[in-house]
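Weekly modeling sync, notes
Attendees: AB, CL, MP (scribe)

Item 1: holo prediction request
CL wants a bound-state model with coenzyme A before deciding which constructs to order. AB pointed out that an apo prediction alone won't tell us much about the pocket. Agreed to run with the ligand included and paste results into these notes for async review.

Input as submitted:
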Amino acid sequence: MNESCLDAVLAIEQASFSTPWRREHFEHEIAAPFSFPFVAQCDGVVVGYVCLMSLFEEAQILDIAVAPEQRGRGFARVLLEFAITVAREKGAEVLALEVRASNISAITLYERCGFVRTGLRQKYYDGRDDALLMEKYLK
Ligand SMILES: CC(C)(COP(=O)(O)OP(=O)(O)OC[C@H]1O[C@@H](n2cnc3c(N)ncnc32)[C@H](O)[C@@H]1OP(=O)(O)O)[C@@H](O)C(=O)NCCC(=O)NCCS
């Protein structure tokens, strides 16, 4: 991900989340030393992205989304597998994430990629929806 992708990234972000990240969030991810944001492109068009944070033995998926019209084509899986590879290369031992407990498509994606459920934060999102905590061990 770089500055030139951000209009496309923001359009996907806004179409994907009720409280989307703003441009400054992505600019921070591009600049931060322990952040590794990537886009997936198809025919030169940004179709999705993943934001990975990897700091020593711990890594986290901060954000992942695919353009609504491009879903179901395997792009999220490619992005997530790539982030897993990068986290391993950076020396992370565990990759963690949080997901809305009602987000079945994302939870299924994560389980397909080897993440397991490790906890639940009640009413974490907007004081309403629970957050499911998931982890994948990388060693
Ligand atoms: C979740 C999301 C990233 C999946 O993107 P995608 O490109 O459609 O996913 P893929 O095509 O790579 O699918 C990978 C796996 O995810 C699961 N999956 C994807 N969409 C699904 C759906 N609608 N229902 C059930 N499982 C689904 C499937 O298990 C699939 O594996 P399979 O093909 O072996 O069955 C996409 O729906 C999205 O951008 N949602 C909005 C943003 C979001 O919720 N992000 C996660 C925040 S934690």
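Recorded for review: The pocket of coenzyme A is lined by residues 16, 64-66, 71-77, 99, 103-106, 108-109, 112 (CB under 6 Å).
Action items: CL to compare against the apo run; MP to circulate these notes.
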